[in-house]
Write a structure and sequence with these properties.
By secondary structure, the protein is an alpha/beta fold. Helices cover 25% and strands 32% of the residues. The protein binds S-adenosylmethionine. The site of S-adenosylmethionine has 18 residues, from helix 6, strand 17 and helix 8.
Length: 444
């Protein structure tokens, strides 16, 4: 077999990455955009580490769960991996992705908790800006490449994203701002990012210098479409693909985006972490509050706490909370929110590395008080914090994970002293391969 050969094979299963796996003789083939049970024709694209990678040409025998993608840009964008799959089937697949990743633990995985309407859920948007034949492109990187595809309407975002697309397109014409070119690294405008809640929007123009032409026009035009607008500048000369530098400058409007989530007031800056799908997140938050049993007299340690939304929930329910978060801006925001929600006597927001600070925090809490630790780490998982957590002595650990593979690594360490009580996948990212998993553990 060689690159460009055309082959036909059956898809046996979807791997941990949501891609189909099939075999021709002893050769293992991996291919995106397929469903288990399908027969496909495909072209070989590359070989790596004993695996052959292929691109779909034609579905010869389609699965009964294959549906026509709603998005007209699905083939050129590559942002959604599962749009060709019926939504209920997506939920089963995500259940199985978690089940395969956690197969060592011999624990039942609950059904995936989904949403009623699996589109228009994202509250965050990162437009990449480029140009082709002197025409601006406002869209996303085509999956796994540096090629920018123009996407005027994305079904994962509500109509606000289309409005923003039109304003950015008009802004580029009106301001005559130069467009950044990835290859030559010349030009100014690189990204336009936004967060949107309840028709309030925070927009950041990421440019290579410190002057945004026609910024007043941009602010005024945004104000005509959205209720409250905050407009920021981020000056980013980095050579890598990181969207932001540290340099944020507020140009107009309120300092942050404000919202109310399950009774607590929150504020979000352009760079702080906020879950992208609030309807499903509310379901997860309710479950977390339930599992942690937050109440008067209980102590909760909130690790990897971001701007401290969960800390506010725990404190509102009566618990004393200590949170640890690495990113300074998020901790500053967390401290503001604690004050704004009148919870200063309940929450202590600490800045630092969980790995170094967890042990100190545990030692400072009253010895016999019931303790629960909630963790919500980034994709790479707990790393060094896992063994401190395993030896923490807390009665309960509640673990929210966005990556079943790093979750599996961490659980191997935690089960030395903890018993897994339940595992529930949640569909935070419908139409994509990603899945969020909530695990409840109790001290043995
Ligand atoms: C998945 S987010 C969770 C945020 C928060 N729980 C929420 O729901 O809004 C992970 C957070 O962990 C923080 N983080 C990453 N590594 C860390 C470390 N070693 N110590 C403390 N915080 C860390 C990141 O800055 C980020 O805010």
């Amino acid at each position: 077999m060689k690159v460009k050969d055309i082959v036909e094979f059956d898809i046996s299963y979807l791997n941990e990455d949501g891609r189909g796996v099939g075999h021709l003789g002893s050769q293992k083939l991996v291919i995106p955009d397929v469903i288990e049970g399908e027969r496909v024709s495909a072209v070989i694209t590359s070989f790596y580490d004993g695996v052959t990678f292929a691109k779909l040409l034609k579905v010869i025998k389609p699965s009964e769960f294959r549906v026509k993608p709603k998005c007209p840009y699905n083939d050129i964008c590559g942002g959604c991996n599962f749009q060709h799959i019926d939504y209920q089937k997506q939920l089963y697949i995500k259940h199985d992705l978690v089940k395969y990743a956690l197969s060592d633990f011999n624990v039942k995985i609950d059904d995936t908790v989904g949403v009623y309407y699996p589109f228009k859920y994202r509250n965050k948007l990162h437009f990449v800006i480029g140009q082709k034949d002197k025409k601006p492109l406002i869209g996303f990187f085509k999956g796994g490449t540096k090629q920018i595809v123009d996407i005027p309407k994305c079904i994962l975002h509500d109509d606000w994203a289309e409005k923003l697309y039109n304003i950015v397109a008009e802004y580029i014409k009106v301001s005559k701002i130069s467009i950044y070119d990835i290859d030559s690294q010349e030009g100014a405008l690189r990204y336009v990012t936004a967060r949107h809640i309840d028709n309030n929007i925070i927009v950041t123009m990421v440019i290579t210098n410190n002057f945004l032409p026609k910024s007043e026009w941009l602010y005024k035009t945004l104000k005509e479409e959205f209720k409250k607008v905050s407009l920021y500048l981020n000056i980013n000369n980095r050579m890598d693909s990181k969207v932001y530098s540290e340099d944020f400058i507020k140009l107009n409007g309120d300092w942050n985006l404000q919202a109310k989530i399950m009774g607590v007031d929150i504020e979000v800056s352009p760079s702080s972490f906020l879950q992208v799908n609030l309807p499903i997140m509310n379901k997860i938050y309710k479950r977390i509050i339930d599992y942690t049993d937050a109440k008067e007299g209980s102590y909760i340690i909130d690790l990897f706490s971001g701007i401290g939304i969960t800390s506010l929930f725990f404190a509102k329910a009566g618990a004393k909370v200590t949170s640890i978060e690495l990113e300074k801006n998020s901790v500053n925001e967390a401290r503001r929110l604690i004050k704004a929600n009148n919870l200063s006597d309940k929450v202590n927001a600490l800045q630092g590395d969980c790995n170094q600070m967890l042990k100190i925090v545990i030692d400072e809490l009253p010895k016999n008080a019931p303790k629960t630790i909630f963790v919500d780490p980034p994709r790479k998982g707990l790393e060094g914090t896992a063994s401190t957590l395993a030896n923490s002595g807390a009665q309960r650990i509640i673990y929210l994970s966005c990556n079943p593979l790093s979750l599996a690594t961490d659980l191997k360490i935690l089960i030395k002293h903890y018993k897994i009580m339940s595992i529930t996948p949640f569909d935070m990212f419908p139409q994509t391969k990603h899945v969020e998993t909530l695990v409840e553990l109790e001290l043995k």
